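Hi Y.,

Following your request, here is the sequence exactly as I used it, all 283 residues.
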Amino acid sequence: MGKDSSIEWTHHTFNPWWGCAKVSPGCENCYAEAWAKRVGENVWGASNDRRFFTPKHWAEPLKWNAESESKRSRSRVFCASMADVFELRTDLDPWREQLWKLIDQTPWLDWLLLTKRPQNITKKAPWAKDWPNNVWIGTTVEDQKRAEERLPFLLSIPAQRRFLSCEPLLGPVDLKTWTVNRQKNLHSIDWVIAGGESGPGARVMLPGWARQLRDQCQTGGVPFHFKQWGHWAPVAVPKTETKGIRKFWDDVMGFDIFMEAKGKKIAGRRLDGMTWDQLPASL
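Below is the corresponding structure, written out as tokens. Let me know if you'd prefer a different format.
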């Protein structure tokens, strides 16, 4: 968690603090909670304290900014992989203020602020109508219900870039309401990231769900990034019953799909024979 992140769609990750509380089905197998518990940090849940960091930690993005400026090449920073910047807690307010100052001090970094609480963005972000060029605001959309709940809030924000993380993708998501038939009072979707769940207890992402998002992005001119299949990946129809392979009805494709529990590394991240690494342009 830091410089040179292993997450495919960012260069670095920065956490202003650790800890969060679960709010929707996408949180069920939260990797951040599991990681925190693994290192002995009890920071999950509404009543638990959050973990905060020293000035040395906060100085790291300043170094990344200097490196990017020297190379004349912008870098993306995912903030926050172990928290939610827009969680409504008063003890987080001083740290949020410090984050806003840090963003202002690092114009060569594009800050990707991803939240499951887009309804809180206008309450906590310091920028009303004049958002900085280096802030991309995003929300997690794991299913259609969360799309309908969260996108009106996200797409009302006049940030320079708005993006969706459809990971873990737990069902089909139809974006036509916000792309083809976009409402005049809402801004555009500028980027879609999609991926399946990995780790213990991972739920299946069916191929039709990923293809539907990709196809709608292509039709709407929205950059599409396919991050991973996750723990489960599609396979050909087995000739005999095989351990680790299960049959699912793909409600988008309209036929049965066989999925195998391969693990994230083996399952890979190719969709229909291609690697989808599209990105919106920095400003």
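The radius of gyration is 19 Å.

Thanks again,
Q.
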